[in-house]
Backbone:
């Protein structure tokens, strides 16, 4: 009997690494992609994972990596975790417009490419899950994180659409929505030197392992929203009835209910 398989982008650190460790501990075959070769080498020396130099901004790279990782399982993939992401902190008009490009390329295009490239592999597995990393900023836009929230609202919109679209392929879709997480992202500074970690001091700060637990949970559930933390849980409670009504409507429209 083959091990279930999971591929995690941005897997060499933070939430991605915590997720890889949890799936390994649960007996899964784990692949991680990252743009940092040194970090990949370090993880490979410490953890039983398959590592790939992977740029989520490059569609051809998605095909190359997934072809290689999924080949031992006849092209099947049980779980794809679109985790890779970047952040800038500060007022929108204080930033150089060039700083917006990495967020659009990684947080939006990278996730869209992963969803598009990954579905054919997920469709070959039974009970498969596409997991997209959103944020509390997918639910409420912090004024000092306008660009980041823009990208995370995009991930939410994409994920909501794919809940119905990918049901055609037998693939469930989940959205993970954590509050602030203790990763290097918290070390971002505004252009005028205000540190993100200092700015959120006193607020709830999650451990990466808490988010990993919710990612793992999402692979065993038909729920869509997986908030992590007090604020996103409250926000999801408010929007969930509308989402579920819309989902039921679209499933009926396409004869999939």
Residues:
């Amino acid at each position: 009997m083959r091990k279930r398989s999971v591929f995690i982008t941005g897997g060499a650190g933070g939430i991605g690494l915590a997720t890889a460790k949890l799936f390994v501990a649960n007996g899964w075959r784990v692949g991680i992609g990252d743009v940092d070769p040194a970090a990949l080498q370090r993880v490979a020396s410490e953890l039983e994972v398959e590592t790939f130099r992977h740029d989520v901004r490059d569609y051809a790279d998605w095909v190359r990596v997934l072809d290689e990782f999924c080949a031992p399982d006849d092209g099947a993939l049980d779980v794809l975790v679109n985790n890779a992401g970047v952040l800038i902190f500060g007022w929108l008009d204080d930033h150089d417009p060039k700083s917006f490009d990495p967020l659009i390329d990684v947080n939006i295009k990278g996730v869209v490419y992963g969803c598009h490239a990954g579905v054919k592999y997920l469709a070959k597995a039974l009970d498969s899950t596409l997991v997209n990393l959103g944020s509390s900023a997918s639910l409420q836009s912090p004024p000092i994180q306008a660009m980041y929230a823009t990208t995370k609202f995009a991930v939410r919109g994409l994920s909501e659409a794919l809940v119905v679209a990918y049901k055609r392929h037998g693939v469930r879709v989940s959205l993970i929505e954590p509050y602030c997480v203790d990763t290097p992202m918290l070390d971002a500074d505004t252009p005028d030197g205000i540190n993100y970690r200092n700015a959120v001091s006193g607020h709830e700060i999650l451990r990466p392992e808490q988010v990993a637990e919710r990612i793992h949970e999402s692979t065993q559930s038909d729920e869509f929203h997986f908030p992590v933390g007090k604020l996103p849980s409250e926000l999801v409670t408010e929007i969930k009835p509308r989402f579920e009504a819309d989902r039921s409507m679209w499933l009926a429209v396409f004869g999939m209910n």
Remarks:
- The chain is about 45% helix and 15% strand.
